[in-house]
Design brief:
The complex is a heterodimer.
Chain A (H helix, E strand, L loop, with lengths): L2 H8 L15 H16 L10 H9 L4 H16 L4 H14 L2 H8 L8 H8 L5 H10 L8 H10 L6 H5 L7 H14 L2 H11 L7 H17 L3 H11 L6 H15 L3
Helix pairs in contact in A: 1-2, 1-3, 2-3, 4-5, 4-6, 5-7, 6-8, 8-9, 9-11, 11-12, 11-13, 12-13, 13-14, 13-15, 14-15
Chain B lengths: L2 E5 L4 E5 L12 H9 L27 E6 L3 H11 L4 E7 L3 H15 L5 E3 L2 H5 L6 E4 L3 H13 L3 E4 L7 H13 L4 E2 L4 H4 L2 H8 L6 E6 L21 H5 L9 H4 L20 H4 L1 H11 L9 E7 L2 E7 L5 E4 L8 E4 L17 H12 L7 H20 L3 E4 L4 E2 L3 H4 L13
Parallel strand pairs in B: 3-4, 3-6, 4-5, 6-7, 7-8, 9-12
Antiparallel strand pairs in B: 1-2, 9-13, 10-11, 10-14, 11-12, 14-15
The chains are: A mainly alpha, B alpha/beta.
Chain lengths: 264, 427
């Protein structure tokens, strides 16, 4: 039996599966169990190697949905069990890789707190399931200003079209970090609706938002062009080539128009 | 259009279609007003004589490239000295999150010029917002590179960024896009790619290796997680800003030391800030290897993970079939496998200007050509490192869609393409 196979089998020693996998090598399952036990008291300064069996279990469970589900549940249960910040950090990093809809609720519970919001997003941003985006969308209006840019940024990276409306409301926020994140996110989402929101805001954007909004509109135009929406892209570029824009933006807009012109 | 790149000491020129001029010619405050007025003309760069761009021997103060440095610890301090020693550069600002570092660098610059004109900053955004600055160099820890480079491009600055240029696969495309969008000169920072592996580069480009099939690189170690316990933050150190987009963690001197060691006593060792030796030295070795076998314009389409009796190694396969091995058993570093009959030779591309990679960057700022270590080549090298890291982390082979910048048919691997950034940082 290869080490990968033995490690894979140890996963079955999650509490829910012990009875069904009586033939699994005891030593390996013991190592994973020990690692989960260590997690309960794990904190800054503790030996990171003590958690390695969980890392190995994740690798070994690839392609085995049942084993992966058990492992994910153990991580989620651990997260709900009152861990130190360092241990929460570890679990969220693992859920970034193996998390599914099953993890979203536990991760979403960490979003409102300043100490854990980012590390929860560390997992949620990368979990493809729509429920992860839903959790971020729902949390956005509820979190404090300090956390909003991150939440908006994650929705932007996911190109979450359902959040265009709520993000657009943040374009005019007096907190520049929030407003900038909103512009950037809309640029990344890059749909005609996102372009419309950016253009609407650009007409009365304060000086502090001029470059962020112009950049977002350029990014948006590139995305529109890539998606075959040439007319919408050209409209954005046309608006950005005027003398009211910084030199580098005007040149970028001209460049964009040339690119669009050569695109069928 | 083709442009010429001079080969130092050889008196001949290499035609390099990739060395195309970028479109925005604004390079110094003295020229900016004129150039801004004509910015919409993409043909403009060809109308501006080189002598007007400070490229004719002597450099009038108004024609010097006005520069600033961001991240000025060990490597950044060396970069600063290299730029400061040039007569065609006027250094006006330094930025570092450590007060003693930035004040020390500021004093050094002011002593050099005999004035008090150089200003010190804690926040790089204030530097990039200055209209009088043409170009910056960045030697922050790796987790900051993409944010700084993209923000520099947004503000119309050219930028020289230390290697490894990226921390994640997603960052690379965003950096290239920003550079091209704003027509900026963006150079990566490995001088070793051209300078340290000449024997093997010359052999490959000179044709003596015949048809090259593969090259091997031995480099490491892998990055690790850092769980070091907290210690008091030193006075004058903006710890929150040092962490920036990385997950919060308590201060520990080993977590943030800029030492070149990759043994758990510097930020280069840890996943949140670096790719370990795989990217730190990998940027050099893989950069040299991809240059030698002439695949620097390409990205791998596949990374093949091998596990032979517990011995793990990996191979990147490029679209033209060439292979780049990592830690291939019984093969030395930069060992080339070729057909070994004499093949056609071609001239080796080199730096433009004088003064190595720094001179190359400055020359390109003036001429608007792409530098030897153009961000696209640098990102391709960094991507090789990241693809290897992903395959080793997941212990399986992966296919990479170079157009979509995604792994093919592997949702789990695609989660490794990027990381969520700590608020308020977004790219």
């Amino acid at each position: 039996m290869t080490s990968k196979e033995t490690t894979k089998m140890t996963l079955a020693f999650g509490a829910a599966a012990v009875a069904a996998t009586g033939t699994v090598a005891q030593t390996d399952s013991a190592a994973v169990n020990d690692a989960f036990n260590t997690l309960k008291t794990y904190d800054w300064g503790a030996d990171r190697n003590a958690l390695n069996p969980i890392d190995q279990a994740i690798i070994a469970s690839h392609g085995d949905p049942a084993a992966r589900k058990v492992l994910e549940k153990r991580l989620v249960d651990a997260l709900a069990g009152g861990l130190s910040r360092s241990a929460q950090d570890y679990v969220c990093r693992k859920l970034r890789i193996v998390g599914t809809a099953q993890s979203v609720r536990a991760l979403a519970a960490l979003l409102p707190a300043e100490e854990t919001s980012h590390i929860a997003r560390y997992a949620l941003e990368r979990i493809p399931d729509e429920k992860a985006a839903e959790a971020l969308r729902e949390a956005l209006p509820k979190v404090g200003n300090k956390l909003k840019p991150g939440m908006i940024g994650s929705l932007g990276v996911r190109r979450d079209t359902k959040s265009i409306g709520v993000i657009a409301k943040s374009l005019g926020d007096s907190d520049l970090s929030i407003a900038r994140a909103a512009a950037q996110a809309l640029g990344l989402i890059g749909t005609p609706a996102a372009a419309q929101e950016l253009s609407r805001f650009a007409k009365a954007a304060p000086a502090s938002m001029k470059i962020p909004v112009a950049d977002a509109r350029l990014v948006c135009a590139e995305q529109l062009l890539a998606d075959g929406k040439k007319a919408e892209a050209v409209a954005l570029y046309e608006e950005l080539k005027g003398d009211d824009q910084p030199a580098q933006v005007k040149v970028a807009a001209m460049r964009g128009l040339l690119t669009a012109a050569t695109k069928k | 259009m083709s442009l010429s790149t001079r080969i130092p000491g050889k008196g001949r020129h290499v035609t390099n279609d990739k060395n195309k001029p970028t479109k925005d010619p604004s390079v110094s405050p003295g020229r900016r007003a004129f150039l801004q007025a004509a910015a919409a003309s993409v043909a403009l760069p060809y109308l501006v004589p080189a002598s007007a761009m400070g490229n004719a021997g002597t450099t009038a103060p108004s024609n010097r490239i006005v520069m600033a440095g961001i991240g000025l610890g060990n490597m950044g301090g060396g970069d600063l000295e290299s730029f400061l020693g040039r007569g065609d550069v006027q250094y006006v600002a330094v930025c570092d999150v450590k007060r003693d570092v930035r004040e020390g660098r500021m004093n050094r610059v002011n002593e050099k010029y005999g004035n008090k004109d150089c200003k010190a900053y804690n926040d790089f955004r204030e530097v990039l917002a200055r209209a009088d600055i043409d170009a910056v160099h960045c030697a922050t820890p790796d987790h900051w590179h993409a944010i700084v480079v993209i923000e520099a491009c947004r503000h119309g600055k050219d930028i020289y960024c230390q290697k490894p240029e990226t921390k994640t696969l997603r960052e690379g495309k965003l950096m290239i896009d920003a550079a091209r969008r704003y027509s900026r000169v963006v150079s990566g920072g490995s001088q070793r790619v051209l300078e340290d592996y000449r024997k093997i580069v010359d052999a490959c480009w000179g044709g003596s290796k015949g048809q090259v099939k593969s090259i091997n690189v031995n480099v490491g170690p892998f990055p690790t997680d850092c769980n070091k316990a907290g210690e008091p933050i030193p006075d004058g150190f903006d710890w929150n800003m040092w962490l920036g987009p990385a997950p919060w963690a308590p201060y520990h001197p080993h977590r943030c030391s800029g030492s070149y060691n990759i043994d758990g006593t510097s930020w280069r060792s840890f996943k949140d800030y670096s790719g370990g030796g795989m990217t730190d030295w990998g940027a050099h070795h893989f950069g040299g290897a991809t240059f030698a076998i002439d695949v620097r314009e390409l990205e791998p389409e596949e990374v093949i993970f091998h596990n032979e009796n517990g011995r793990k190694f990996a191979t990147c396969r490029f679209p033209n079939g060439k292979l780049l091995h990592h830690n291939y058993p019984n093969r030395g570093n930069l060992d080339v496998e070729g057909t070994n009959e004499q093949g056609p030779s071609k001239a080796v591309p080199s730096y433009s200007g004088t003064g190595g990679i720094y001179g190359d960057f400055i020359d390109c700022v003036k001429t608007r050509r792409r530098p030897f270590r153009d961000i696209e080549f640098a990102v391709h090298t960094a991507n090789v490192c990241h693809l290897f890291l992903a395959a080793y982390e997941l212990e399986r082979s992966l296919k990479w869609d170079t157009t979509k910048q995604q792994f093919v048919g592997d949702d789990e691997a695609n989660r490794l393409v990027d990381v969520a950034r700590r608020e308020p940082w977004v790219i």
